[in-house]
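To whoever is on call:

I kicked off a structure prediction for a single chain this morning and the downstream step that reads the tokens threw a length-mismatch warning. I double-checked the sequence; it's 382 residues and nothing unusual in it as far as I can see. Pasting both halves so you can look.
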Amino acid sequence: MTETETEPDEATDAEETVETDEPTEETVTDGGGEENDPDESAVVPVGVKLGSTRTVVVYPSPDGDGTETIRTLTCLATYEDVLTGEERILYGEEAAREYPDRVEFMLRSGLPEDDESVESASTFFTELIESNDVPTNSAVVYAIPTLDNEAGLENLESVIEGSQIGEELVRSYPESLCGALPAFDDGLDAIDDIFVTVNMGSTNLEVCAYRRGEQLTPLSTGSITGNEVDRRIANYVEEETQGRVNIDPTTAREYKEEHADFENFEPFTDVIQQPGGGSHEFTIEDSVMDACNEYVDETVDEVANGFLPELANNYMKVYQLALEKPIVLTGGMACLPGIVDEVEERLSEELQRDIEVIRSERPDLAAAEGAHEIADHLSGSL
């Protein structure tokens, strides 16, 4: 965990050199019971997950009733205004949809790796915060991946701290911990327990145990990822159509998110334009679920034969106690319908014992939701 307490930002005198178009993104309001008049002087808790594929921000609704959740693609694209000649910026879904040829996903490796990606991530995050009026008098908790990359983590910290939010507090917690909390009925009290969490992200698979908030035996691999599933789907579609159809990773991801279902998958059709004119309609029966089933098998193998033996070797009692509790799935891949039952069944078979697996209602939002819960707790003492 890292913490930085900051003084309120001085008014910036930086010149505005770029005009920005507002993106299309998902904003969800979650009512939290009776409406309360918000105290404008109170510190506002904000949870952030700045992810390789998507960014999620959770903060209290302006009317004091429940929370607001912003979810958008972590990307941007620039173009020249034909009337003024000025450079403009699009970000999120709008950038990916309109400029797939040059849209920039600046956190493809999971963290900003160099000055250029730090600058792009800062531009993206600043515009996201400004366009949604996220409060600046805030205590910010942001989720960080379990990666042995100190420079990248410092770069991510600079992106968050360089934004307008977090005037009162900026602190980071592991993404796997933040993402697990919404899956438990007792919420933040789960930090005092022992459990195992599997974070199924776009760029990494993270597995670790927690003992009263202490991270034990963290494992991270970049070979079992949502992005790899997308690549396999694209390859399998080419094979299934005898080489007549080639799709890009973005289309493959859309196939996965719209059609993958371990319970009730149904073959689907799509149409592409042929070179020289005409169109070709094709049906996908196996490509999507073949890639997803391979992902589950590899995840189960990593947990059962990689992570758990190491946990047992290092912390036998924790290993025994953790397997008596549910294993929590979080991250974007955990959203696939039926994946909880599939992991539970295959992991139980591999370990030859009954294992319970759970997830939150929205695993793709869980890291930011959990970070918001922590921020809400911390802001009470500010």
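Update from on-call: the warning came from a stale cache, not from the record. Cleared it. Sanity check on the structure: The domain at 2-185+365-379 is CATH 3.30.420.40 (Nucleotidyltransferase; domain 5).
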